[in-house]
Amino acid sequence: MKLISTTDELAAFCALAHDAPYVTVDTEFLRERSYYAKLCLLQMALPGPDGPETGPAVLVDPLSEDLSLAPFYDLLRDQSTVKVLHAARQDLEIFYIEGGVLPTPLFDTQIAAMVCGFGDQVGYETLVRKLAKGNIDKSSRFTDWSRRPLTDSQLGYALADVTHLRIVYETLAKRLRETGRAGWVAEELSTLDDPETYITRPHEAWKRVKTRNNSSRFLALVRELAAFREEYAQSRNIPRSRVFKDDALLELASLKPVTQDDLGRTRLLLREARRGDIAQGILDAVARALACLPKDLPQPENDRDESLQVNPALADLLRVLLKAKSDITGVAARLIAPSADLDALAAGRRDVAALAGWRAKVFGEDALRLCEGRVALAVKGERVEVVALPD
């Protein structure tokens, strides 16, 4: 099983891919010891003239000193070849950060499978078993992909990630054409196609920190500490947890340390973070937060919801309607409308995703009519139906 290790070899395969209707793509990477993912292996496969399983498949070694990924990035830009991946979010982040490119056109088999009725966030192994009638040997999944040489077991596992994917793709693409749902998948891919998805701005990092304290001043401390941690981790390419973890961040926001001695009284801060650049960065972040003017303090994202009262009876009816629509369409209820959207609708909000795009046709339009008292729900046998009410 050959591992491509030169630019010329990669370019030769990519030349074939430029003439193919699609190419399946996957990666193996490490992220435990760095902020940015380290690409360790690239896998690709093409359909063959006598069926998807007869085409060539390759493994590419991005760690080779004799290899540039430029031909691969050119392939990602080729509008004539569909790039097929499964659960593509992390792979696309690598391509964007390292190559400054996002694949187009893109097809994500996990998203397509959800639209086709395979449930929420269906795994690749499940699709291989159900659609390609194959099995994946998962014993190599958590191995160190940066070590060389790679074992035959690792190479076989990696190759299976793109060879079975050809049949999975062709089967799902056919179902989408037959059901007229290809546009639904295109809508769902809009987030993956947006470069903003892969850009982490330090001053927005605080929004990922879970806290029960919604005091604006406390949130300002969380914001400044999270921003420092993100900048420090990015600049040194280390995991943010190596700087300090979320529980230590929240402890610091509560203690509001202003001196080195104050840092010494923390319980959760790592010893090495109590001195040097990290310690000074923490103290500077706290100082910025304490000096922040009231007009510049962050506000809890749920502030706008406090004046809205959820109607619990209406929320329950919306859940019944959603279950009925999910059963009819075969699409996972969570994909159509998460629980938060239902509560927002029941509270009078109308700025939810369930009222836009394909979701509006499947669920949102009837949900809105239900909220406005223009329709009712009726049980007929084992089905729930929407019944129009007289004006």
Quick overview of this protein structure:
The chain has 391 residues and is α/β, with parallel strands linked by helices. The protein is built from 16 helices and eight strands.
What does this molecule look like?
By secondary structure, the protein is of the alpha/beta class. It folds into three domains: 196 residues, 2-Layer Sandwich (Nucleotidyltransferase, domain 5); 101 residues, HRDC domain (DNA polymerase, domain 1, Orthogonal Bundle); 81 residues, DNA polymerase, domain 1, CATH 1.10.150. Strand 2 and strand 3 form a beta hairpin.
User: What share of the residues does DSSP label as strand, in percent?
Assistant: 5-15%
Alpha carbon gyration radius: 25 Å
In this structure, how is the largest beta sheet organized? 6 strands, mixed
Total strands: the figure is 8
How far from one another are the termini? Answer: 70 Å
Q: What's the number of structural domains?
A: 3
From the 3D structure, determine the CATH topology of the largest domain. Nucleotidyltransferase, domain 5
Overall mean confidence score, pLDDT = 94
Q: Assign the CATH class of the largest domain.
A: Alpha Beta
Overall outline: flat
Helix/strand order, N-terminal first? EHEEEHEHEHHHHHHHHHHHHHEE
